Each structure stands twice: as C-alpha cells, then as structure tokens.
Amino acid sequence: MSGRADSDTDGEIADSEATAAQDEADDPAEAYDPAEGEEDARRARWTAAGTGAALTLAGLAAALLRLARSAPALVPAAYAGGAAVCAAAAVLGSRGRTRRALWLLIAGVMVMALGDQFD
Questions:
Q1: Contacts of 69-76 spanning 24+ positions with Cβ under 8 A
Q2: What pLDDT does residue 108 have?
Q3: Which of 65, 66, 91, 101 has the fewest CB atoms within 10 Å, measured from its CB?
Q4: Rounded CA gap, 67 and 91, in Å?
Q5: 101, 90 in Cβ contact below 8 A?
C-alpha cells in the first residue's frame, strides 16, 4: 500500500457521502403508509378465511364420499377431523390470527392426507 500523502481523494469522499444521503432519503420506512398495512391485513384475513372454508368443504365432501363406499372407518373420520381443523383455521383467520390459521390449515391438510393413506 504505497500512496502519496498529498493525493486528492476529496472528490471520492464527497461522492460517497452524496450517495449515502440519497440512500437515506429513499428509505421505505419513512414512506410508510398505515392504510397499506391495514389493506394487507384485511387481505390476509380474507385469504385465511376463504382458504379455510374451501378446505373445510373439500374435507367434508371427501368424508361423505368415503363414507358412502366401503372404506375403513378411520378414513372418513380423518377427513372429517381435518375439515374440522380447517374450519377452526377459517374462524381464526377471520378474527385476524392469520399466522395460527396458516399452521392450522397445514395441520388439517396433513390429517386429511393421512386419512387418504389409510384408504
């Protein structure tokens, strides 16, 4: 690292300081709009509630179809149990507990898939 002590680096320092000031001005945290956060939360609630309702109906339909034909009793019970878990997820999602609703939806689908393995 050899360099002259009288070298001119003032231009480079000024450019980097200007870039840093511009980056701070473009900070998205300063441009936060609370209305967008409310809209995102509303969309998440509707998505969780709608997905939970759709999976509940699908699970109940599968349970009724498996019950109508000769299948072990555990199969329709697993579908109905998974549908009940998805119904609980729909309720939680509509109340704003979307993270818990997501995990319940995953658990409900897993219970239904387990029931399908018994068939």
A1: 71/119, 72/118, 72/119, 74/115, 74/118, 75/115, 75/116, 75/118, 75/119, 76/115
A2: 96
A3: 65
A4: 26
A5: yes
Q: What percent of the chain has pLDDT over 90?
A: 49
Alpha carbons 57 and 79: distance in angstroms, whole number: 10
Average pLDDT, stretch 1-22? Answer: 58
Total residues found in the chain within this entry: 119
Threshold 0.85, pTM exceeds: no
C-alpha 16/C-alpha 21 separation (Å) is 9
* Amino acid code (one letter) for 118: F
Position with higher pLDDT, 80 vs 16: 80
Task: Write out the chain in H/E/C secondary structure.
Answer: CCCCCCCCCHHHHHHHHHHHHHHHHCCCCCCCCHHHHHHHHHHHHHHHHHHHHHHHHHHHHHHHHHHHCCCCCHHHHHHHHHHHHHHHHHHHHHCCCHHHHHHHHHHHHHHHHHHHHCC
